[in-house]
Amino acid sequence: MDEQGNWHLTDMLHAEQGRGDPFAAAVRATRMPMVITDPGQPDNPIVFVNEAFQTLTGYSREECIGRNCRFLQGPGSDPVSVAKVRHAVDNGEDVAVDLLNYKKDGTPFWNALYLSPVRGGNGNVQFFFASQLDVSERVAAHQSMMDQKELVDHEVRVRTADLEASLEAQSMLLHEVDHRVKNNLSVIGSLLRMQIREANDPGVRAALRATMERVDAMAAIHRRLYQAEDVRYFELSSFVLNLIQDALSSSAFKNATLHSDVSFTRLPSGQATSVGLLINEVLLHLFNSYTPVESVHLSCSSNAQRIRISIANRLSSKTPQNEISPISTKLISRLSAQLNAKVLWDHSLDGMTATIEIPVSRD
């Protein structure tokens, strides 16, 4: 049947109309609640309801015929959704919308409404055909999901706020520790410098100066740690390079040149002080006031197993270098044992090479 034929009997639609029309019979028999309204009458009243609609709403056919569908609306119906239906009727358009409707006994239900105009041969809207589907369970499930999502979002916001507060407290504590340690190291350094100026014995001055350089190395390590973006790690290669550059900037080695081949190397911050002091102790022997250094060669590399640092001085004259001091020997030995590291020395008349191998920590 074409559209006009489908609605051949609609001129006589009343309470029991269309019994001989297969299309009308199908509408009556379907389990889908359905109504037909007539926009040609005032207020677009219902002219047909099937049995499924009566079962869904609790209203009888007699209570529905002649009334506008708005009688299903109630205090919880969304005005915006209702306005969409009204706009579709006024403009002869299809519309699909979920509406909160109410049964005869006042029970609310979510109605998945689909409204479509039926046009005659002249193109004018003769009827509106509307199907309903109770989707209360679906809407309730969706609302439950949204409630759970809101609950989770709330918990995430609360947890995030707690973490941010904790991080802020840790940051304040970190800055306080940084400030106090820095001040203490500064005071120690100042005391050592005062002692150096007051000491008359060259040996005492040399010992105090070496101690002061160790304190300065610890201060440099501390400063780098607390300035790093990630305080869990200590960037070693640039630290060693800066230590050597500082040594060469002194008057005794200002004419020496530096050749470096370093790659990004880092280690856990817990090892930073021990490694830094070990390297500083090696440098104290490679650069002392009795060593005529012409150039320095530095290489720093790492792999999954170990960190390798090689520092070599090249002398301007064939002069045997002094033996490493007892205290330096003891410090290097203890620090190496603590780190499970190795320090290898290669002596020659051209200079000395110290190679430090440090196993990579899994911390």
Outline the structure in words.
The chain is of the alpha+beta class. It folds into two domains: 3-134, Beta-Lactamase, CATH 3.30.450.20; 232-363, Heat Shock Protein 90 (2-Layer Sandwich). The protein has helices at residues 3-6, 22-29, 51-57, 61-64, 79-91, 136-198, 202-227, 236-248, 272-286, 326-339, and strands spanning 34-37, 46-49, 95-102, 108-119, 125-131, 233-235, 257-262, 266-268, 293-302, 306-315, 342-348, 351-359. The strands form three sheets. It has a five-stranded antiparallel β-sheet with strand order 2-1-5-4-3. A five-stranded mixed β-sheet has the order 7-9-10-12-11, covered by helices on one side. The chain has a two-stranded antiparallel sheet with strand order 6-8. Helix 8 packs parallel to helix 9 (272-286) and helix 9 (272-286) packs antiparallel against helix 10 (326-339). The longest helix is centred in the middle third of the chain and has 63 residues, at 136-198. The chain is rod-shaped. The two termini are 80 Å apart. The model is unreliable at 1-19 (pLDDT under 50).
